[in-house]
Amino acid sequence: xxxxxxxxxxxxxxxxxxxxxxxxxxxxxxxxxxxxxxxxxxxxxxxxxxxxxxxxxxxxxxxxxxxxxxxxxxxxxxxxxxxxxxxxxxxxxxxxxxxxxxxxxxxxxxxxxxxxxxxxxxxxxxxxxxxxxxxxxxxxxxxxxxxxxxxxxxxxxxxxxxx
Length: 163
Known about the structure:
By secondary structure, this protein is an alpha+beta fold. The chain contains two helices and ten strands. Strands 1, 2, 3, 4, 5, 6, 7, 8, 9 and 10 form a ten-stranded antiparallel β-sheet that branches.
């Protein structure tokens, strides 16, 4: 578990059906990173990708997905882009490591990561409540890719339940 400080993101927002998220979200991420990231003003971490998922209402069949970059403030948001602020919160963080290009991270490759997340919640007999129905984000440091190694970090809010 890690405390995440508040930070700002600017990116292109997509409404993605949950059933299509395993393919549509990576497509949106790749398109943003290849074609749109250079339009984000004043990136705080120019080589780090953030993918923020927010669920407007748990009964909806879709989520808002924001392929984005961290910025210092939200004073200048270009046309067609959206700004968002991730609040400071206690999160559970997981790291996926692969021996392939970061663009090859797919549902199948990340399945072990999601299995570990579910195992954490289940193994602690309800001690923790994963709040990923509110938001979660992935983070990829493209500088970490060296031709053989890539990593993706995944964070979601978590809280301890009262006994």
